[in-house]
């Protein structure tokens, strides 16, 4: 347990950590192993879920979009990710922020000890243009420059050693949140979330799973929608609406003579 002003927080230590650290593995192998682990303990998951938007904090638009309440987001972000909070590793903070921000329709970007929104300006990115104005390509304004979303959670490593003889991989250091900005200038909407996933290439379905469903439809072409929908939800990103229109188009696109997805 540790304290910030008027608040007490728990440091959630995964059960696997002691066993891994006591193993005889090389530190490079330990680093690789720890980077693959799920650092979210059941208690930490429950805390994150308690900061998810409620039904009252999500409004449905006539266009079929879902908008989260900005004030509620800022309050719950401040509750879950306050200045000074400690996490066991940067990987744990990364996983916490992803789970929390996905629920609020925000695509997380993690770089240079900073958790930010996809629509935040890129760090140290320099746009190079041709010296000859005639040969310059016409480039549409970046959405990052358009929205300049200021949301960010910065952190620092604790007891970090720069001495090469003592320095360990970053995964072995606890981290403390050192700076926060909960303001958010882009929409907390399902559409914005989906578009940001598409732009950075993370809106990818599980192709092996979809091929299994196609094989099932070949055997049972009249499979009822209420049985097909849960199967599709397992392999289609959760921010994609699996409605009657989607199911109908899926059946038509992948008919019985359609080859497997590659």
Keywords:
262 residues, alpha+beta, 2 domains, two-stranded antiparallel sheet, 37% helix, globular
SSE layout and pairing:
Layout: E1 2-4, E2 7-9, H1 16-21, H2 27-35, H3 42-49, E3 58-60, E4 66-68, H4 70-80, E5 86-87, H5 90-103, E6 108-111, E7 114-117, H6 143-147, E8 152-157, E9 175-181, H7 190-199, H8 207-219, H9 225-235, H10 244-253
Antiparallel strand pairs: 1-2, 3-4, 5-9, 6-7, 7-8, 8-9
Fraction of residues in helix:
25-40%
Count the domains.
Answer: 2
Mean pLDDT: 82
For the report, how would you describe the main beta sheet? 5 strands, antiparallel
- The succession of helices and strands, N to C, reads EEHHHEEHEHEEHEEHHHH
Strand content bin:
5-15%
Cα-atom radius of gyration: 22 Å
Number of DSSP E strands: 9
* Rough outline: globular
Sheet with the most strands: spatial strand order? 5-9-8-7-6
Question: Distance between the terminal alpha carbons, to the nearest Å?
Answer: 49 Å
Poorly predicted ranges (pLDDT <50, ≥5 residues)? none
| DSSP helical segment count | 10
Helix/strand/pairing category: alpha+beta
């Amino acid at each position: 347990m540790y304290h910030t002003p008027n608040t007490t927080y728990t440091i959630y230590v995964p059960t696997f950590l002691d066993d891994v650290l006591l193993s005889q593995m090389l530190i490079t192998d330990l680093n690789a192993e720890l980077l693959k682990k799920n650092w979210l303990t059941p208690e930490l998951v429950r805390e994150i879920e308690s900061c998810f938007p409620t039904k009252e904090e999500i409004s449905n638009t006539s266009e079929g979009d879902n908008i989260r309440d900005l004030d509620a987001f800022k309050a719950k972000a401040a509750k879950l990710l306050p200045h000074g909070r400690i996490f066991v590793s940067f990987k744990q903070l990364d996983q916490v922020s992803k789970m929390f921000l996905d629920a609020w329709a925000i695509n997380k970007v993690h770089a240079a000890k900073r958790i930010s929104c996809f629509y935040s300006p890129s760090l140290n990115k320099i746009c190079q243009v041709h010296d000859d104005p005639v040969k310059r390509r016409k480039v549409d304004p970046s959405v990052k420059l358009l929205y300049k979303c200021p949301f960010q959670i910065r952190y620092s490593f604790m007891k970090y050693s720069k001495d090469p003889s003592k320095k360990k991989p970053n995964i072995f250091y606890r981290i403390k949140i050192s700076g926060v900005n909960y303001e958010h200038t882009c929409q907390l909407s399902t559409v914005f979330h989906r578009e940001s996933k598409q732009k950075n290439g993370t809106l990818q379905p599980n192709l092996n799973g979809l091929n299994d469903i196609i094989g099932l439809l070949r055997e049972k072409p009249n499979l009822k929608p209420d049985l097909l929908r849960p199967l599709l939800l397992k392999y289609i990103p959760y921010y994609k609406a699996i409605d009657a229109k989607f199911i109908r188009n899926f059946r038509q696109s992948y008919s019985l003579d359609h080859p497997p997805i590659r």
